[in-house]
Amino acid sequence: MRKFLLLAFMEHEQFKSALTVNQGIEQPSSVNDDSVRNFIRNTKKKLAVQEFVDGILSGNRTILSQAITMVESSLPGHHKIAQEIIEKCLPFSGKSIRIGITGVPGVGKSTFIECIGVYVTSLGKKLAVLAIDPSSERSKGSILGDKTRMEQLSVDPNAFIRPSPTSGSLGGVARKTRETIVLCEAAGFDTIFIETVGVGQSETAVHSMVDFFLLLMLAGAGDELQGIKRGIMEMADTIAITKSDGNNFHKAEIAAVQYRTALHLFPKSASEWIPQVLMCSAINGFGIDKIWEKLSEYVQLTQQNTYFQQRRQEQAKYWMYETINEALNDHFYHHLQIEQLLPAYEEMVLNNQLSSFVAAKKLLSKYFNHSKQA
Fold it and tell me: Distance between CA 79 and CA 73 in Å, rounded?
């Protein structure tokens, strides 16, 4: 009987189930289309050259980073814009101290740079760190991990860290690094650190764009005698023995004596500066102030005897010729006729049908003849 009454009640036209689901209103999208369109529009917006220049001169780091990206870009359009920006920033550059820092892998370059960088900013200076980051020859990829290794310096308001991948071309990145120095100086950075890859020719490239060259060496790793190589030792204005702490302190003292002895064998530098050998530890800050003190002494001496300005002029001339060589090289290999002929000449050289020298001479002859006709 109860079941019958329940069914009758449910069939009544006035009955409404508690489980009835109303259709409701249409739910809005979780993504705001207007915001997306505005983001894309702002992202694609291209700043004018003067806007870049004004932003750099005002110390806007976002615009500075964008300008450096233009410098590093391989796109012809970006290259043209970058050169205009550099040209306009050039009158506001040249007022910093440029310091090259190199050393064998494992010497602790990043740790050292963070330690001395924090010390430099504590003196009220503005520091830019340009770290040349090695790229994979296979994938052309680069870690660009200097910001993660320099945790304290990366959040310092008076410091700017910019890693640049070599992308397999040291000459190209050297030129781009030099142009980046101009932009950083125009942005108000009075101290520039350039950290090298630490392998082979990178030291020579960086030495040609800095005022002071600091070589970091490691004691107790069996490289004391191997490290005494005439080329790199002659370039160094100061040698710092890193990780001079704990059980390694005595080994660092021995290494310092060996390096001082080696430096006495070299002829006197044109700068009249006697290279120094110092010990330091980035872990506890030992010797960092002494290194900066010697660097300041070097700058004072070379500015007084005019070597500082002479070297800057020599570097400017050097990079003029390097830029010419790079442009000619690029133009040759991107010449339409040369691009078409190169595979065939390569094949003839590999099959001993033509010597390497004759093949090069013939290609150059065709290139110059075509250039004359054009």
Answer: 7
User: Distance between CA 137 and CA 169 in Å, rounded?
Assistant: 10
Q: Mean pLDDT, to the nearest integer, of 195-210?
A: 75
Tens-digit pLDDT profile for residues 245-291: 999 999 999 999 988 988 888 888 889 999 999 999 999 999 999 99
pLDDT value of position 213: 94
pLDDT-based confidence at 77, cuts 50/70/90?
confident
Which pTM was predicted? Answer: 0.79
Instruction: Identify whether the C-beta of residue 287 lies closer than 8 Å to the C-beta of residue 238.
Output: no
| Contact between 168 and 137 (Cβ < 8 Å) | yes
DSSP character string of 180-231:
HHHHHHHTT--EEEEE---STTHHHHHHTT-SEEEEEEETTSS-HHHH--HH
CB 211 within 8 A of CB 97: yes
Distance CA 63, CA 87 (A): 16
Residue 35 located in a structural domain: no
Residue 173 and residue 134 share a domain: yes
Reduced to 3 states (helix: H, G, I; strand: E, B; else coil), residue 360 is helix
147 and 80 in one domain? no
Same domain, 79 and 159: no
**Domain ranges, residue 65:** 45-91
Structure tokens at 130: 């340009």
Number of C-beta neighbours around residue 153 at 10 A: 25
Residue 55 CA from chain centroid, whole number:
21
Q: Is 11 a domain residue?
A: no
Instruction: Let me know if 224 is exposed, middle or buried by CB neighbors in 10 A (0-12, 13-18, 19+).
Output: buried
Separation of alpha carbons 217 and 259, rounded Å: 10
Do residues 167 and 285 share a domain? yes
CATH number of residue 113's parent domain: 3.40.50.300
